[in-house]
Amino acid sequence: MTRPMFSFSNETDPHINAAAYRLVEQMAHLDAEALKGKAAADPDIEDECLALPMWNTYWLVSDSCDKRAIERLCCSMMPEDEDEADALLANIGIDVEEIKRDHLSDCYECRTCQDGDACSEPELDEEAYVQAVIEMWDECNSDDYWLARSGWQVVAGTGILALEVDGDLVLGIDGAGYSFADSHWIPLYKELGYGWHKRYAREARIGEAARDVAAVFSNLNGKTADLPPKLRAALQELQAAYASLDSGRD
Ligand SMILES: [Zn+2]
Questions:
Q1: In angstroms, what is the span from residue 97 Cα to ligand 1's centroid?
Q2: What three-state secondary structure class fits 140?
Q3: Which in 20, 81, 102, 223 has the greatest CB count within 10 A?
Q4: Where exactly are the structural domains of the chain?
Q5: 124 alpha carbon – ligand 1 mean position (Å)
Q6: 98 C-alpha vs ligand 1 centroid, how far in Å?
Q7: What letters, b where the CB count within 10 A reaches 16 and e where it falls short, cover 142-155?
């Protein structure tokens, strides 16, 4: 029995490859027009021009268990706290400390604050800092900014983008020219922590054992009269079951 798998992949475990393939196979494809139609029907998506990751193929997560599991991995692309804003600034090559200096505010607790003088230990006004970083990101005219504005989130550890639209979860990939299996789908399968590949490995072992038994049985050339009848019947059963499997494995 051969399971379909990604043909262009460096994954060395064929069962993980096949499991990741199955994960993607149970998603439905959406083109940009269909996605725009769904977004237009969703009152929560206000952007009149929905930013889309590149290419024209999106994946609708059809299975409700997969949907819930992937949603747990989703995180916002918009910076929401100091650390995320720091990371974003560093990413777009802007001096983090310089911007932070512009968003310090009095602490109102130190001695100089209490004396009404300029604060000696000013603190970062986190909300103003995060807002300033978002505005700088906007000015960079980055595609990521518009994706984030449209509500796209990132699926942690996978490089995949996700959008909740009209009650559904849609995945998109903003890239081209490399193996999606190795860069996105197999990492997604691993992040989900599913055990499908373990079951595939067990089934493969059972298949191998059945093949070995079938080979031994046929080598007996019908000289099975000495075998206990129940064992003979079980071996015949196993041989027939093996013969009925898809023999495309080798
Ligand atoms: Zn102070």
A1: 19
A2: coil
A3: 20
A4: 25-77+151-194, 82-136, 198-244
A5: 11
A6: 20
A7: eebbbbbbbbbbbb
Query: Residues 1, 249: contact at Cβ < 8 Å?
Result: yes
**How remote is the CA of residue 87 from the centroid of ligand 1, in Å?**
27
Q: Give the Å distance between the CA of 110 and the centre of ligand 1.
A: 4
Expressed in angstroms and rounded, the spacing between residue 125 Cα and the centre of ligand 1 is 13
- Cα(79)–Cα(96) distance, rounded to whole angstroms? 14
pTM above 0.90, yes or no: no
CA of 123 to the centre of ligand 1 (A): 8
3-class DSSP state of 12: coil
The set of residues, in sequence order, having a beta carbon less than 8 Å from that of 228 and lying 6+ positions away, is none
Hunting for tokens 């691993």 — which residue is that? 190
What's the gap in Å between 103 CA and the centre of ligand 1? Answer: 14
Q: Which residues pair with 10 in a beta bridge?
A: none
Cα–ligand 1 centroid distance for 80 (angstroms): 25
Range 44-50, long-range pairs (CB < 8 A, 24+ positions): 44/151, 44/164, 45/150, 45/151, 45/165, 47/149, 47/150, 47/151, 50/150
Please state, in angstroms and rounded to a whole number, the distance separating the CA atoms of residues 52 and 57.
10
Tens digits of residue pLDDT in 114-173: 888 888 888 999 999 999 999 999 998 788 899 998 899 999 999 999 999 999 999 999
DSSP state of 177: S
